[in-house]
Amino acid sequence: MERGLLELHLHAESFLFVERELFTSKTLVKLTLSAGYDFEAERVFLPALKSLYLLTDSGIDYDNHCRLLDGCPALEELFIRDADHDCPPCCGSVVKSASIKRLVVLVNLPNKRDSHDYAYFEAPSLVYLDYSSYVYETYQIVGLDSLVEARLSLKIWDYYDYNYDYEYDDESGDGYYSSDDEGRSYCYSYVDDERKEPIFGDVTNLLAGVTNITTLHLSPDSLEAFYFCCKSMPVFNKLLNLFIESNKDKGWQGMPLLLKSCPILHTLVFKGLVHRVTNKCGDACACIPKKEKRENEKKKRKIVEKQLSCLWTCQVKVLEISKYDGSFQELKQMGHLLGKLGCLESVKVGVHADNNTEFLQANLLALPRLSSKCNNIQFS
To answer: Can you give the pTM of this predicted structure?
Structure first.
């Protein structure tokens, strides 16, 4: 450390405890702690450090984590992997730094739900955030006003033998959601009206803290987390580019409210269109009926409500689709998007090379388009 090192990577295949009274270097620019390291130091001072990678499997306790970040006044890049260990989350739960501009956090501790009670992020210089985690019970977000781009992968917790994600969808259709006086969401069964365990986690404050972004990337899990774990969707007044990854096992329940909350959205990009069909995709999806029946009494509730389109008011000018295979569901969804996005000017579709490209192109080109400015579809 005292010989002018610029880069240091500490890696241990088995657990190794590192304890130092002083952890200092005037020259170190990049530091990585990976695998089995646990770190403890009474004082940290790394004035030249620009990049810090905390990739430990065992975790670093809260006090040492804070001392480490406080001792890096010039830090610009912080990468945290808080996963594959039996300790409660730490490094990925609290990040406070005045200097970091790029933050990547992965928290993957599926057996530690009770430890995901609180997450805190304070980074006034941050411009890029990549955050992947099971949802926390609550978030506190401070000073992310400089944030420009965010990539979110928010996962709902698994609930023993009960699946919250699809208790009320086109395939099961035997449950409905309600909430108590404190706003916590519950699911009931039409069969026995038994209230299940409340859905754990609330991403409301997290989303409210990143509303200044212009670009947002979402995983398939995130749309479900938005629907089940967000009390109030904030308005993304600056969002121009929205990237959504789809998965056949994940629904689009959060899509309608999200699109309505992006008043100046310019570019909408889908990585795949195939998703799980649910009664909550709204008119963002072509796969559900336009009328929806729900029982409104304890045993018999029946409300017929017409779904209003979240696409008609969408200002999207550029629509991009990748991983397009031309299935019936995909073609139907493309027709739905082209027939309701009235401001479209450009459409780009990425077709898998092993498909009958000419046939797929002909089907897409034959679809009617609401926008008079959308004169062509580009293929790649």
So the answer is: 0.84
